[in-house]
Amino acid sequence: MKLSLILLLLVLWIANPLAAHEILKPVRAAAPPRIDGVLDDAVWNEAREVSGFKTFIPDFAKDLSERTSAWMAYDADNLYFAFRCHDRDPERIKASLAARDTMMNDDFVCINLDSFNDQQALYAFYVNPLGIQGDSRFAGNNEDFSADFVWSSAGRLTPDGYAVELRIPFKSIRYAGRERVEMAIFFERYISRTTEHGSVPELDPAKGYAFLSQMQPLELRDVRRSTLLEALPSLVYDLKHEQEAGSLRRTASRGEIGFTGKWGLTSRLVLDFAWNPDFSQVESDAGQVDANLRSDLYYSEKRPFFLEGSDIFQTAGMSFFQSAVHTRRIVDPLLGLKLSGKLGRKDTLAAVFAIDEVGDDPLHADSGAENAAFAILRYKRALSGDGFLGAFYTGREQGSDFNRLLGLDGQIRLSRSETLSFHGFASFTDNPSMEDEQGAALNAYYSKSTRDVDLMGCFYSIGRGFFSESGFLSRGGLTGIESQFGPKLYPKSSFFRKVQPRLFGTVIRDHESGMSEAMGKLGVDLLLPGNASLTLEGWAASEIFLGRRFDTSQYRLIANSWLSKKLYLYLGFRRGNQVRYAQEPFQGTGNSFACLCRYLPTNRLEWEFRLSYADLFAKADGSKAYDYTIVRNKFTYQLNKYLFFRGVLEYNDYYRKLLSDLLVSFTYIPGTVLQLGYGSLYEKYRWEENDYRPDDRFLEMKRGLFFKASYLWRLQKLQRLISKIL
């Protein structure tokens, strides 16, 4: 009997080498492995193999179709990982030589690391089969790919698949620096052609995609406590020309020096400093249709100074008040200070102070000050599981004008699959251009997610006097409730791999008019053979605008697929009733269409084509209010993992503008960069009789040349000296 029990336990251990609550203890490397994608280092023979990957997409608890093994080791300064990814059809492995964070459609492996094992946030380190990196921070069910960390990777294709190696320096992540360091890990592999995500440990279908609460704990000992100290000087030169009296004339020619620094006060708390930082965009934001908007367009943050600890600022709950902190409101900082990280095991803090050179801002024209000061404070207290309670303060001060925000938010895990998140904010504003000086925003959001069903319920109320000049508010002055029910079906079919119908409903009370609007939506998401997907939606809806109710019933179709490992196609179409947002609004009807095509003739060259179209017609007489077309072509040639050449040509038919961008970029590691860019703007004008008049031909209206050089110094000797002193 005892022998049978021992044999049974042994079989279970072999079948599932990482049990749910086992603490993983990686091997300590006597000699560091060489990060070259060749798994011939002695440490990988000593390390315990991690295998038995199980899928969580498209379904849970299935064997990953291709055999995968992983290993882990560490020393005093680094974490090391290796993957061997077998493939019975290696010619179909998708791998491109690309810039950082642009390889997420390739096959890849990923190390998901909760560096505090507190279920609050994780680092994700992605590597494709050629060693190209992607990285992100995941918190509050949101993944932010704008984060960039300094780490090393290599990968290579093999006759039976591919192999990958990673090195993650401890100084690149935040962790609790003790003799015994506790983290948690989640190994992942993605197979592009089958849309399979597999993991170790296996995800529980009853918990769905609650990744943070299902990670494997790991234990490290005797990690070196070194003080992080980084200096990032930058040099930027701009040469600009603009049309004046019929000819291009130089309007600016200047070089600027900037500085960004990072000091790890502890292994878990970091101070960032920036003086006259370079906040230029490497590439212009892709054009979006900006006609007939009720709220501002949202653009994600890309600027390095704001990325450290950006996940801490995420706001719990979901409503038209999307975030209490949207750092792109800080347009052109002259000076910035930021403190972010943990004060203890459960306490997280982030604070930002910045002086913004706002220039001409009509909203604050009478404030009596040229610059604005931003002060932002965020505190979070971890609860059991992935729950937390948090508080915010944000303030924007410009002369006599101010906008201040105080609030609380949090998330509570009700069960293995259920969470309740919420926020409550009060705003205080002093600005002659705004009528109301105070307002409040409240939200409660319930979510349940398992293998078989998604449920959502939401309540929110945003006062007419609520404003946030440090956050992102798409619409205010309303109270609403929302709910959604989405069963997940897994037919025994080779064509329909997963079917997810959705029923959504919302009712909103508009405070200004006292009238109500509503929406009822029925949709279905279909996962088809390979990695193709199809979404069909239709809704009956109304919307209140300037005291009138309009019909906004529409239907939508979205389809996308990698037709081969070289060709991707996305198509989106929407048709139905709309509102003409204007001082004299009217009922309209219109269409919108979006197309994205990516073609990779080689693993170094990519062509991307985007087409966006929208129109609107008055329903009363059929007259056209507008049609809007944007065509964007982008060509990228990646010479190696560090150097690429990129050209962008975008035409906006609505504004009759043609934009061209050329860029040569060399990035050794995040921060160590050389870039040379050229851009020009053409419009359909001619200079005639001392005036610019509309024309059928293009006239170059602006031209710019841009150069940037920056170098990331990790000051090793000074770090060790400070560590000894402290």
Folded structure, characterized:
The chain has 726 residues and is mainly β. Among the domains are: 22-221, Immunoglobulin-like (Sandwich), CATH 2.60.40.1190; 306-478, Porin (Beta Barrel), CATH 2.40.160. The protein is 4% helix and 56% strand. The chain is built from 3 helices and 41 strands. A hairpin with a 4-residue loop joins strand 36 (624-638) and strand 37. It is globular, with a radius of gyration of 27 Å.
Protein topology:
Layout: H1 2-15, E1 27-28, H2 42-46, E2 54-57, E3 68-74, E4 78-86, E5 108-114, E6 121-127, E7 133-139, E8 142-144, E9 152-158, E10 161-169, E11 180-191, E12 196-200, E13 216-221, E14 229-244, E15 247-266, E16 269-275, E17 321-323, E18 333-342, E19 347-357, E20 371-382, E21 388-398, E22 401-413, E23 418-430, E24 438-449, E25 453-462, E26 472-473, E27 478-487, E28 498-510, E29 516-527, E30 533-545, E31 548-551, E32 554-564, E33 567-579, E34 587-599, E35 605-618, E36 624-638, E37 643-652, E38 657-669, E39 672-688, E40 691-710, E41 713-714, H3 716-725
Parallel strand pairs: 1-3
Antiparallel strand pairs: 2-12, 3-4, 4-10, 5-6, 5-11, 6-7, 7-8, 9-10, 11-12, 11-13, 14-15, 14-40, 14-41, 15-16, 16-18, 17-26, 18-19, 19-20, 20-21, 21-22, 22-23, 23-24, 24-25, 25-27, 27-28, 28-29, 29-30, 30-31, 30-32, 32-33, 33-34, 34-35, 35-36, 36-37, 37-38, 38-39, 39-40
Salient structural properties:
726 residues, mainly beta, Immunoglobulin-like, Porin, 8-stranded antiparallel sheet, 3 helices, 56% strand, disordered N terminus
